[in-house]
Amino acid sequence: MSVQDRSPQDPAPAGAQPRSLAEELRARDDASLAALLQARPDLITPVPSDLTQLATRAGTRASVIRALERLDRFALQTAEALAVAPDPAAYDTLLALLAGDEGDPDVTDALPHALATLRGQALVWGADDRLRLVRTARELLAPSPQHPSPTGLGPTVTEATAGMSPGRIQEILATAGLPTTHDAVSAVASLTALFTDRARMRDLLDTAPADSLDVLSRLVWGPPYGQVTADPAPRLRWLLDRGLLLPTAPGTVVLPREVALHLRAGRAHRSVEPSPPAVVPVGTHRPQVVDATAAGQAYTALATVEELLKDWDEGGPAVLRAGGLSVRDLKRTAAALDVTEPIAAFWVELAYAAGLLASDGEADERYAATPAHDEWLELPAAERWTRLATAWLTATRTAGLVGGRDTKDRTLSALGPGLDRSAAPEVRHRVLTLLATLPEGAAPSADSLTARLHWERPPRGTTPQTSTPQTSTPQTSTPQPASPQPASPQPASPQPPADDLRTRLARWTLSEAEMLGITGRGALSTHGRALLGAPPTATTPGAELAAAASRAGRLLAPLLPEPLDHVLLQADLTAVAPGPLERPLADTLGVLADVESKGGATVYRFTPGSVRRALDAGRSASDLHAFLAQHSRTPVPQPLTYLIDDVARRHGHLRIGAASAYVRCDDDALLNEILADKRSQGLRLRRLAPTVLAAQADPATLLDGLRAMGFAPAAESAAGDVLIARAHAHRTPPRTAPEPVPDGPPVPDATLLRAAIRAVRAGDLASTTPRKPAPAPAPTPAPARGGTLPRTTSAETLATMQAAVLTGEPLWIGYVNAEGAASQRVIAPVRVEGGYVTAYDHTADEVRTYPLHRITGVAELADDPA
């Protein structure tokens, strides 16, 4: 058989069982291997050299722990049942451990899928009559005194009696009514047979005292270990004499696994959950109402982020030495946005995740808007929203943690380190996906939603039975009434920890999605459903993310209010904006007037201070009159015209410069009025000339002091020109949005999977193909399958290569690359010259050239793979 005809994944002979996980992987097709590498991407980092290495990596502790953590509750319960079953176990044995003696149709229906999941992830291998859990998983899930089983079961009779004297075992047999044997092995087998025989065990327990049964009931669901004194009470002595409790250490006893399974009616778990709990709706609204509410929230989200960045436009709060915002600055930001501190932290973190703000990196480091913020402001409202929504969906930074403590008991601050949680994108995407399964307009129950998430990914530190086991101390426990026949306990509903991370992430997701306008009144909106096409992490192709965001934006755009080009002026010196304003209008009005209230309509108030601010920015009175007349749908009120003219008439009448500071005015009577005013005493003014006053205060202080007295001074330069106080926006250098912290290796795409599987198959071909002995003066045995690299002299290597070029036969070589990495390859030499061999490499599936001095040895391939 040639190399091209021989395939390592050829099916084994009929009826043959795989002897290892590597053999089972070798029998899988490419689709099955691709599914395995997608489910466990850590196995492909780096790409294994062959299937044996892949199987070895699949059994490492870190990889198995990661795989177990990603199982749903019933698949994990299935793995735990296999951990306490005989190795190997038959399918019927596994089914009995999960369904119990009475059987459970739901378990019977769900078990094939759970077992297929475990097989697909290479946690279980073997045929149905010889199921094997990988050794590492069995060690992680099997019971021991140091690490009790998640099922609450103790060791088997064989394990518990391993250190017991043969005489003591024979005494237990006699007391239990069994015939004695000649050796300990048969004695243990006889005792095990008794405990696994339902009828004989029932007869034995019928003779047990009630308080002894009570002790068993306290241990049956775990933990199975208890403490006893040197002189046990009669109820304990009865159990010890019959092996229903076995000593494991001085003062410690354990309930054998076989006894516990009888008392549990054959079940390994108190509560088995073959099906996920349903997400229960608690309210239903018309889809149009949901979309309108969500669109209103989306508009508010845009306005809030704009207001935040406008507040930090000239430079925001200082960066703490350890990074992040101080508590005081977060409070100030919350007050400016008129929200609570946790909500302010969310908006700050969202703007940071979207790349709209960052630290400026200067010596006096402060937070400020980035250049991307100015580009973002020019986008249509729907596109600005999709930028925020997709940043939130893929971000690993978690604003809900702000104010908490890290592992070193340090306070977690907004924009600071320690806020990344790699599970956040997956949880957010999953929560929205579950919302999409409900009828349109239905809002879910938060408790049912978190219960579903816990079924899909059980929290760490919890067990599938999830009832807190009682610590058993048999020698001190008070006897309780017990039935002579041990009754089957009722399943207990799982109660996952209320403060586990996924629960908190799910609840934060519900509130944050509402604030962002992805949901409305708790129900998923139409544009929110479209956004679900976006991948949960930033590691997936950006085209998919952009396409989903674009669809969501198109659905949201008609629901957002169109920007207005007008306001309504009122006689009480206010202006009402009945909706969002066009940006030039909003910017100018923000300088000319103060925002008095926000909401569906924004109310602006004109004051002498706000008008003076517009004049300081370089506007003239005529400019302000023309601006108001152009953008008001109502006539400009006379009081507003008078206010502008009055402030403009006095604006700049007084001039302030640097003397350290001076005041000059052509009207000496006005200067006399200032000197006579008691409020000017703090400025320490004195007259230098009829039209000039000198001050010991600096120009800024003098300017503020006179304005507080009711005057409208203007600052001037050294040349006597009026200084225009136009705010200068502070921007950071170009910054990129923070990269999400991945939750382990990224899921490989289709191209990488195809290349990796081809490389693994080729490497497996090279390592498993049978080979002839290498030519040598003295005969040497043929290398074993997958053995060490062949060793031949340089002359032998060259002669074998040249002969293979003439015959066209493939060869097996050992090769060491420039980095010192050794590998085995199957090549078909084409040309040998100049110290190099050019050959078709079956391992790499391409033509390559190898230096002869790096080939450690060569061997011909055997004709018969057997």
Automatic annotation (TrEMBL):
PANTHER family referenced in this protein's UniProt entry, alphabetically: FORMIN, POLYCOMB PROTEIN PCL-RELATED
Key words, A-Z: DNA-binding, Host-virus interaction
DNA-binding among keywords: yes
Region of interest: Disordered: 1-22, 456-500, 764-791
PROSITE patterns noted in UniProt: WYL (PS52050)
Comp. bias intervals (Low complexity): 462-480
Domain WYL span(s) in chain numbering: 796-858
Name of the protein described by the UniProt record: DNA-binding protein
Record-linked InterPro entries: WYL_dom, XPB/Ssl2_N
Biased segments, Pro residues type: 481-497, 772-782
A GO MF term: DNA binding
Source organism: Streptomyces sporangiiformans
Domain Helicase XPB/Ssl2 N-terminal: 567-689
